[in-house]
Amino acid sequence: MSEVGVVVAAAGSGTRLGRGSKAFVELGGRSLLEWALALFDPMPEVDRIVVVGPPTRLERVRVVVERASPRTPVEVCPGGESRQASVRLGLARLEGTELVLVHDAARPLATPELVRRVLAAARQTGAALPGLACRDAVKRVEAGLLAESLDRTRLVLAQTPQGFRYRVLERAHFQAADSGLVGDDDAQLVAATGHPVAVVPGDPGNLKLTAPEDLELMEALVRARSER
After folding, report:
1. How many CB atoms lie within 10 A of CB 141?
2. CB contact at 8 A, 165 and 94
3. What distance in Å separates the CA atoms of residue 190 and residue 164, rounded to the nearest whole number?
4. Is 79 exposed, middle or buried (0-12, 13-18, 19+ CB in 10 A)?
């Protein structure tokens, strides 16, 4: 079985949320970083984890990791000035792995089933992302006016974790750095190299914490899951 490494992107400042570093925001009594470790650590497919944390809060990140007592080797490293730079730094710590998963700590409700869908597609094609179909009509707006109606059947909402062969993602990051390309996610960087990126079904519950109302919805989902 291929060695699998995980980069947990947890260095974001959480400016829009207004509650400090997202990694330490609590959901259901534990931090988002703890949720990420609880997702990947028990999975037998995962061999190594790198947590990319806020450079000024690394000691707190290490405390969280130690408290979790992971069975999987976990390394903590400082992030960069952007998510893209942070992932690149985390990727460098996983040299030697064959497959890499990149996951945002801001998506604490991802499931093992979703991870395995992404891994299976990444093994086959070299790059994969989970995507949700758009349920609403999608419009392009310019200066507050409707400019174009887009075909929603050809669009998805991208999620993480995203999975890649190590060399595919490494090459994408090097080329992006050389060209000055700044992508919304790692799949965009890989696609820019010409490598195909498979899309697997995402998970509606795999929400991203961006605004305070997102946290309220996540709390409701956690309560609903615990009651099942």
Report:
1. 9
2. no
3. 9
4. buried
Structural domain spans, the chain: 4-227
CA 228-40-26 angle, 5° bins:
65
Q: What is the pTM of this model?
A: 0.94
Residue 227 corresponds to which tokens in the numbers above?
């009651």
Structural element, H or E, at residue 9: strand 4-9
Instruction: Return the C-alpha torsion angle 18, 31, 132, 87, nearest 10.
Output: 80
- Tokens (6 digits) for 216: 């309220």
Calculate the CA 140 to chain-centre distance: 26
Q: Which tokens hold the place of 81?
A: 């000035």
Q: Which amino acid is it at 115?
A: V
Within 10 angstroms of residue 193's Cβ, the number of other Cβ atoms is 16
CB neighbours of residue 129 within 10 Å? 27
Please state which CATH number belongs to domain 4-227: 3.90.550.10
pLDDT tens-digit map of 85-123: 999 999 999 999 999 999 999 999 999 999 999 999 999
